[in-house]
Specification:
about 70 residues, 2 helices, globular
Length: about 70
């Protein structure tokens, strides 16, 4: 596998994970959108600021679930 192939593979995984997270947030009733333009603020925009704490808790829960 070439260096370029490895970079492409990492980017595809990243793209798919971001899509999965957004889909899961939508299932939880949280409005989220994918950012564009390599935003320094991140890859996912949480539309309602009031939901940020809940999103952080969900992310911690998923991280614990999938990394144990």
């Amino acid at each position: 596998m070439t260096d370029e192939d490895e970079q492409i593979a990492r980017l595809e995984i990243h793209r798919d994970i971001i899509g999965w997270v957004i889909a899961e947030l939508h299932k939880e009733g949280i409005r989220a959108e994918r950012t564009t333009g390599s935003s320094r603020k991140g890859d996912i925009l949480i539309v309602d600021r009031e939901e940020v704490a809940r999103v952080k808790q969900l992310l911690r829960s998923w991280q614990s679930k999938f990394n144990s």
